[in-house]
What does this fold into?
Amino acid sequence: LDKFVKTMSPISIALDILQGEKYMYLGYLLPTIIQLQKKYKNLLKNRMDYCKPLIFSIIEGIDKRFHTQLKDPFFIISSVSHPFFKTVWIDNQDHKSEALT
It folds into this structure.
């Protein structure tokens, strides 16, 4: 049960952030999704043997649902122009340069 809670915790936190009513902006979407993907990839490395099928399913579901938004210039610009995120959430230097142009 403890491993299940650790597995579902990141998605629960991401949902809380994205469902915010007062201080939620479109610029929060991509950084939250990218961070969620990173957390689940790290969970795979931490030998979560019992929950690996669940983690793989979550990663696949996130990729399937948000692959178009992750490449959409409108979403990228809204995240880059948010003063809190700017380009911190973009790992690849080429993608940073592309987002800023």
Notes: Residues 80 and 91 are 13 Å apart (CA to CA).
